[in-house]
Write a structure and sequence with these properties.
This protein is an all-alpha fold. Helix content is 77%, strand content 0%.
């Protein structure tokens, strides 16, 4: 197990280095001049040259990249071209909003998606199964921004016109200001993020569980007189969890890198909103920092998934 985790960590470090080189090279050859963006259209050539020197943009790309990597390994991701704030500070300030959105959304979509998938798999072809598949189809058909706008219309604007305030239209309140206000502002974003993903997990759980319930060892367990509940939840669902954990690790890692659409709809100033602002302003240090953050989450998620594999399936520890 230690060798497995170690190999994954080394591979993840290589991936992050390759990712940083790709992003750095991509923005070097991309059209657009950060000095012009900072200096404005009226900036003189002398001023633009001075800005480039201050930002280090007059150096060859290899020197710029080596400087960036040297600072990055010390935890210094540079400074925003526009705000002159530390990139790491900007990300750390935005991360609680994104993490709150993702953690709550994951809990909601697992609570909704897995039971629906199990229910459909236990009774395939029945009315219960068709209802579950209908939920899956509807959930997958709605883009998250449409779902978010519908949630705002139905649960904010309409009650507001009637003089009621069921939920706020958006924004983020830190957990330090109280659990109630924190959760109240995140209910609609959680549900929006969760409904689409719950449909994915319901379909995944149903498909995997139906396949597992057809295995020989499941028939043997039933022949021994083990209760159907124990067969499904202890033997069947446990085997299904490997596929669910794999999907969950990837989804959580990508969302922690910025749940852009949901954050934009509900005005959550998280990492996704920071990435949108940085791309619009061609703020390269911030963009690279956000990309590396997302890559780091993916690497960490893969290591965690491998550890959970070992706990769920002892054969992996021997590999």
């Amino acid at each position: 197990m230690i060798r497995l985790v170690g190999s994954r960590v080394i591979f993840g470090a290589i991936v992050l280095i390759a990712l940083s080189m790709f992003v750095f090279g991509l923005f070097f050859i991309a059209p657009g001049d950060p000095a012009r963006a900072l200096g404005g259209d009226q900036a003189t050539g002398e001023l633009l040259a001075q800005i480039r020197i201050q930002l280090g943009l007059d150096q060859p790309i290899s020197v710029q990249y080596a400087t960036f990597v040297g600072h990055a390994v010390q935890g210094d991701l540079g400074f925003s071209y526009h705000s002159q704030e530390s990139v790491l500070t900007l990300i750390v300030e935005r991360l609680p909003a994104t993490a709150s959105l993702v953690v709550g959304g994951v809990v909601v979509w697992l609570v909704i998606g897995i039971p629906i998938g199990v229910s459909s798999a236990k009774f395939p072809g029945t009315v219960r199964d068709r209802v579950g598949q209908g939920f899956t189809l509807v959930g997958l058909s709605f883009p998250s921004f449409v779902l978010g706008m519908l949630m705002l219309f139905a649960l904010y604007f309409l009650p507001r016109q009637a003089g009621l305030t069921l939920f706020p239209p958006g924004g983020y309140v830190p957990l330090s200001e109280g659990f109630g206000p924190w959760a109240w502002h995140l209910v609609l974003p959680w549900v929006t993020l969760a409904l689409v993903n719950a449909a994915i997990y319901a379909r995944l759980t149903r498909g995997q569980l139906i396949e597992v319930l057809g295995e020989d060892y499941i028939r043997t367990a039933r022949a021994k007189g083990i209760s159907e509940r124990r067969v499904v939840y202890k033997h069947g669902l446990r085997s299904t969890l490997t596929a669910i954990i794999t999907q969950l690790g990837s989804d959580v890692a990508m969302l922690l890198g910025g749940a852009i659409i949901t954050e934009q709809v509900f005005n959550l100033q998280g990492v996704g909103a920071l990435a949108v602002t940085a791309v619009t302003a061609q703020d390269r240090p911030v963009i690279i920092g956000v990309v590396l953050l997302g890559g780091t989450f993916v690497v960490v998620a893969n290591v965690v998934v491998d550890i959970l594999y070992g706990l769920l399936d002892p054969r992996i520890r021997l590999a």
